[in-house]
Structures are given as structure tokens and as C-alpha cells.
Amino acid sequence: MVGGVKMQVANAPDFSVNYTAGILPLAFYVRSRADTTLLINLPDGTWIADDDSDGNFNPVIKLNRPQTGRYDIWVGTFNGGNPAATLYITELRQRAPERGSALVHVDIIDGKLWIQRDGTEHGIARDLLEAGVPREQIALAFRPPDLRARGA
């Protein structure tokens, strides 16, 4: 339990983000049909957590003055299991973006990272691999299934 939030999370973070702070706030949202939780280890070592603040069993953490550095992020559940969930990280919106409008869209399904959209210049899959995520835990969902199977 962190900050009064009961949750079940993996031992290792689901995502790590290196962030350079500017003048904008930073928000983390999770969307799922399950009762999900959000746990973040801030760059200064402070732990913050949320369960249902965004309604419909969805967590949200908003930082008005985010720090520069590494954010380790866990998407967990209140009741256990590995439900499908989408993590949104944004500086520009006060609510999670609509499906399809995010620069990067990654779903966590059965412990695997399904990259639904990658609008980055170099590719989020490369960042995940460099962060130590095993290749077999990453799926390029925006590619046709036959290309995904060949690793193309």
C-alpha cells in the first residue's frame, strides 16, 4: 500500500520515462475496463499513487511542477490479474486524449506491450528494448499480423 492506495503491481516498472521539465504540467492517465491503479517513483525518489481519481475505476496523477529525470511507472490493479490497459502521458491536456490522437499509444495486454501507434521519429520499440524490455514482450500492433510474426 502506497499513500493509502491498495494495489497489486509487478516487481519491475511497466514503463520508465526520462523527462525534461519545462513550464507545462505533466499528467499520467490509465484507461481500462478493469479497476486499475497507478504507481510512480518520481526522479527525487518520492512515491505517488492513485486508484480511482479520474472516475470509472481509472487513476490519474497530475504534476503541476514536474521534475526533470526518470519516472518509473507501474500500472497495477486493485483486484489482481493482467487486464488490458492504456497509459497516457501528456503535457498538453487536462484529460486523457481520445483514442488515436496520442503520439504514442501502448496497451498492456497479458503482460505484453502492444504498440498501437508510434508517431515518434526513432521508434518507441527501440526505447523499450534499450530499457531492457525483452523483444518477445513487445508487439508492433500497428503492423499486419503476418509482418509481426516475421519481426518486420
Quote the average pLDDT.
79
How many structural domains can be distinguished in the coordinates?
2
Distance N to C terminus: 41 Å
The CATH topology name of the largest domain reads Jelly Rolls
What oligomeric state do these chains adopt?
single chain
Morphology call:
globular
CATH architecture of the largest domain: Sandwich
DSSP helix fraction: under 10%
Q: In what order do the strands lie side by side in the largest sheet?
A: 5-2-7-8-9-10
Query: What is the CATH C level class of the largest domain, in words?
Result: Mainly Beta
Order of helices and strands: EEEEEEEEEHEH
User: Could you list the spans in which at least 5 consecutive residues all have pLDDT below 50?
Assistant: none
Radius of gyration: 15 Å
Structure notes:
This protein has 152 residues and is mainly β. The chain has helices spanning 124-130, 145-150, and strands at 15-19, 26-31, 36-41, 47-50, 60-63, 69-77, 85-90, 104-109, 112-118, 138-140. It folds into two domains: 1-99, Jelly Rolls (Sandwich), CATH 2.60.120; 103-152, TATA-Binding Protein (2-Layer Sandwich). The protein has a six-stranded mixed β-sheet with strand order 5-2-7-8-9-10, covered by helices on one side. A four-stranded antiparallel β-sheet has the order 1-6-3-4, with no helix packed on it. The protein starts with 14 loop residues before the first strand and ends with a helix.
